[in-house]
């Protein structure tokens, strides 16, 4: 039976905004992780049928097909193609889905999936900045029909350039699921504590490739973990999305720089080429829900994935639910009745950061390492995405 397996997973450290990775061009950051993937797996770059690369802000340094440019920057053969996709925060998770589909369909033997985002160098919103050719033009991503459809909805700012606001959506979720400010702060603090414990134990070391930076040094560890934060400090932060709200910068994902890559092939092809399968891509789905709430689609995506897999939530040994905002995984827990102890065991985007286009592959890399370290058979990853979408992926350890 045809299958799709992951034979390599590697990521850069996640850098803070204006941090150690801010001096590295996103194409060069991508190239470093591609080279590390080839070195660690033993794959021959010339065998790669395609590189599918996630990136959200495809403008400026991340424009003109960063996936193909990364292949060239990595020194891989010019015969290796590359493409770039945008499913918002789930871009590189979707890249993994496309890679698996190509292998399962017999259209490709070996595909690299991953992504990058340098949010320092290409800030969010850059893609709707005034045109360099004509500064009077601003390309707004929503026309009148979308604006009119949701004009009277709470949380939809019809007259704003971008009327859908993730932070406002997070506030609406917190209210709908009855999540208090203290619950959000406690979740955020736990994310930092879990990430710090994992970093101290060296749990991230096998999945990270050091990154060379312009000053000649190497970045070897995630920068976003705040070891000195407390509930008291978190409680002092303002609520920028609602004056009477509960979501703060402390309970939101960090703006970050980073990249990650996964190698996907079949068991048969891996065996013939001396590559070791790490996990089978058991089930891969995408779902969508209310674009104003925006962040609730991981719930139907999870249900869809479990249904197609024929598994119950209790059979999943680890769940990675992206911490875009603390209400997202907390509401997901409430809806799925999943075991909180299995959720984001090494912390999440609140502590580690969220380099948009690279986060899906980063999370999968971290989850696979946790599964291998703990002998966990099934893992589930899901991410909320702009536009009210979500990917969900179930992998099986081999």
TrEMBL record:
PANTHER family found in the cross-reference section: ACETYL-COA C-ACYLTRANSFERASE, BLR7806 PROTEIN
Top enzyme category: transferase
Keyword hit for Iron: no
Domain Thiolase N-terminal positions: 5-267
EC number: 2.3.1.16
Record family assignment: Belongs to the thiolase-like superfamily. Thiolase family.
Domain of life: Bacteria
Keywords, alphabetical: Acyltransferase, Transferase
Signal peptide start and end residues: none
Thiolase C-terminal domain residues: 276-396
Pfam families: Thiolase_C (PF02803), Thiolase_N (PF00108)
Protein name: Acetyl-CoA C-acyltransferase
GO molecular function, one term: acetyl-CoA C-acyltransferase activity
């Amino acid at each position: 039976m045809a299958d799709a397996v992951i034979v390599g997973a590697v990521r850069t450290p996640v850098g803070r905004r204006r941090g150690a990775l801010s001096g590295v061009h996103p194409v060069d950051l991508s190239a470093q992780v591609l080279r590390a993937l080839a070195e660690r797996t033993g794959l021959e770059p010339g065998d790669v049928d395609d590189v599918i690369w996630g990136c959200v802000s495809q403008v400026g340094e991340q424009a003109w097909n960063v996936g193909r440019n990364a292949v060239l920057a990595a020194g891989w053969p010019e015969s290796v193609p590359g493409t770039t996709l945008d499913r918002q925060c789930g871009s590189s998770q979707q890249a993994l889905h496309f890679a698996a589909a190509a292998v399962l369909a017999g259209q490709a033997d070996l595909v690299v999936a991953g992504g990058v985002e340098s949010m320092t160098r290409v800030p969010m919103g850059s893609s709707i900045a005034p045109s360099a050719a004509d500064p009077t033009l601003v390309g707004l991503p929503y026309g009148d029909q979308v604006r009119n459809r949701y004009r009277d909805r709470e949380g939809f700012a019809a007259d704003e350039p971008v009327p859908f606001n993730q932070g406002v959506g997070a506030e609406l979720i917190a209210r709908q699921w009855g999540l208090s400010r203290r619950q959000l702060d406690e979740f955020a603090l736990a994310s930092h504590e879990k990430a710090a414990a994992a970093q101290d134990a060296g749990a991230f070391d096998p999945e990270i490739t050091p990154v060379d930076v312009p000053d000649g040094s190497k970045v070897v560890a995630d920068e976003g973990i705040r070891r000195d934060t407390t509930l008291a400090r978190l409680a002092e932060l303002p609520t920028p999305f609602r004056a009477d709200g509960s979501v703060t910068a402390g309970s939101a994902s960090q703006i970050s720089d980073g990249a990650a890559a996964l190698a996907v092939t079949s068991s048969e092809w891996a065996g013939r080429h001396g590559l070791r399968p790490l996990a089978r891509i058991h089930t891969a789905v995408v779902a969508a829900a209310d674009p104003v709430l925006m962040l609730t689609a991981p719930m139907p995506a999870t249900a869809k994935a479990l249904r197609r897999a024929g598994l119950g939530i209790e059979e999943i040994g680890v769940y990675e639910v992206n911490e875009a905002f603390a209400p997202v995984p907390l509401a997901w827990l409430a809806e799925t009745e999943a075991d909180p102890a299995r959720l984001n065991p090494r912390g999440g985007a609140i502590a580690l950061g969220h380099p948009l286009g690279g986060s899906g592959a980063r999370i999968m890399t971290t989850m696979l390492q946790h599964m291998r370290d703990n002998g966990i058979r099934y893992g589930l990853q899901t991410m909320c995405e702009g536009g009210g979408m979500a990917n969900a992926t179930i992998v099986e350890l081999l």
